[in-house]
Each structure stands twice: as C-alpha cells, then as structure tokens.
Amino acid sequence: MGFWDYLSSRHQQLLTDALQHASAVFQCMVIATVLGILIGVVTYRSGWAAGLAITSTSTVLTIPSLAMIGLLIPLVGLGVAPTVVTLTLYGLLPIVRNAIVGLRGVDPSLVDAAKGIGMSRPARLLRVELPLAWPPILTGIRVSTQMLMGIAAIAAYASGPGLGNEIFRGIASLGSANAINQVLAGTLGIVVLALLFDAAYVLIGRLTIPRGIRV
User: What's the CA gap between 164 and 203, in Å, rounded?
Assistant: First the structure.
C-alpha cells in the first residue's frame, strides 16, 4: 500500500491522534506558561533565586524523556498523567529563562515613573513590566511548544495520547507492509502540528505586541 493510500484508509484515526496530540501539548503549555511566568516573577529580582530557578528547570532537560516517563509510571500510572507531568516539566525552562530575562530588561525609569504616579507593586507588574517583557516570554513559549511537540510522541510508551502511537506501532511492526507508512504518517503529522502552532504564535504576537517593541 502506498503512503497516500494509507493516509486515505486511516485518515479518521490519524485525525483523532492529531487532535489528541495537539490537545495534550496545548494543555501542558498552558500549565507550563502559568508556572513559568510565576517562577520568573518571584525570582527575577534576586540573582541567586533566578539562578536556582534556571538551574532547576534546566536540570530536567538532562533527563531523557523516555526515562522520565518510565520513572513516573510507578507514581502516577499509565495514560494521560505521566504525559502531562513530563511535558509540563520539560516546557518550563525556556519560559522561566525568558520571563526572567524579559522582566530584568524592562527600563527601570519606566517602573519608577509608574511608581511615581501612585501605581502599586502588583499594578506596575501587570500594567508595565509584564507587557514589556511579553515579547521574550512569547518567544520562550514558542520554543517550548516546538520541543514538546516531539517529546509528546514518547508519551505513547506510557499509553499516552497522540501521534506517537502511530510511530510506535510502525516501529513495533518493522518489516510489515505499512510499518514505514505508520512512522512517516506520525512524524509528518507532528511536523504539521508544530508549524500550525508556530503560525498561531506569530499571529498572537502581532495582536498582542505593539509594533514599536516587536523583535
């Protein structure tokens, strides 16, 4: 069976896997973004705290994703849980690092001006610092998403959702008629999803970043 014939015969299952893959990455990115920005906000004013945050989140990336999922299975079981925990942890570093860099890069004179007109600390953070730090934060989110698209495929090892199931089925049946088609379909599906997510981030950037501070 040719590749296009395989896609035609399996399009419903492939679409379901793609939607599950995109949903898993999206939900984990939401969690990682919230946690990453919070960590950045809490630590960026202190050199040692910021260093600890970056070192801690970067240490996670030294653990092979397959090993991470394997270690989590005895703790949280199979399926969605190890996928969510793994993807969220792997997604933190670029967001934490860029949040710290972005917040530290805000012009102090702007913060002082906001303080001078009576803005409280939370108001300065929400209305001055975070909006100006948003471009590098968004870049961190884009980088994290691209990483998680590939890492999410490993979730199939723990019966997780997504296109990794197609890839693992192909690898498990190497030598059969459709093995290469399965691996190729899963891989290309992940690439297409990554491009679509990145296009969405470009649009978000155009809608949320003033022209004068776009990078």
Answer: 28
pLDDT value at position 147?
93
Q: Which amino acid is at 72?
A: L
For residue 134, give the nearest of 203, 208, 202 by alpha carbon. 208
- Is residue 214 helix, strand or coil? coil
Q: Which of 15, 171, 161, 135 is nearest to 83 (CA)?
A: 161
Q: Considering only CA atoms, which of 213, 176, 161 is closest in space to residue 26?
A: 161
Q: What is the CA radius of gyration of the chain?
A: 20
Residue with tokens 């896609």: 7
Cβ density class 121-156: b for 16+ within 10 Å, e for less: eeebbeebbbebbbbbbbbbbbbbbbbbbebbbbbb
Task: State the 10-residue block means of pLDDT for the chain, 215 residues long.
Answer: 79 91 95 96 93 94 87 82 90 96 90 84 88 94 95 82 87 81 92 96 90 62
pLDDT of residue 72: 86
What are the CA-CA distances from residue 47 to residues 40, 50, 53, 125, 211 (Å)? 12, 5, 10, 19, 31
Question: What DSSP letter does each residue of 66-95 carry, written as one string?
Answer: HHHHHHHHHHH-SSHHHHHHHHHHHHHHHH
Question: Which pLDDT score is estimated for 214?
Answer: 59
Q: Output the pTM of the full model.
A: 0.89
